[in-house]
């Protein structure tokens, strides 16, 4: 085998490896990670809103429930965060 053929083979192999690194393709583990990230991005603001709402209901009572209002606000904020995160992942 000549040196030129060996060099071409090595170059071709390096190009394939670089292409695989640059474009990894779909992965089941990446899907699980995305699912977890979306879940946390909705759950944290929702639970935070519930705790702040319960505290406000105890310290500053109103005709409406702070807890319900802030839970809904947390869900809306979390959905917005998840939406932005998904759009960012699509762009990659």
From TrEMBL:
UniProt keyword Membrane present: yes
Entry superkingdom: Bacteria
Residue stretches of biased makeup (Basic and acidic residues): 1-11
Keywords, in A-Z order: Membrane, Plasmid, Transmembrane, Transmembrane helix
Classification via InterPro entries: ATPase_gene1, ATPase_put
Region feature (Disordered): 1-29
One Pfam family cited in the UniProt record for this chain: ATPase_gene1
Sequence intervals crossing the membrane: 31-52, 64-86
NCBIfam families the record matches: ATPase_gene1
Protein name: ATPase F0F1
């Amino acid at each position: 085998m000549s040196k030129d053929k060996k060099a071409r083979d090595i170059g071709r192999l390096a190009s394939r490896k670089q292409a695989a690194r640059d474009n990894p393709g779909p992965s089941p583990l990446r899907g699980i990670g995305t699912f977890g990230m979306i879940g946390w991005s909705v759950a944290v603001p929702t639970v935070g809103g519930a705790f702040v709402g319960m505290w406000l209901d105890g310290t500053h009572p109103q005709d409406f429930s702070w807890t319900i209002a802030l839970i809904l606000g947390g869900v809306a904020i979390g959905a917005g965060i998840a939406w932005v995160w998904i759009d960012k992942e699509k762009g990659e």
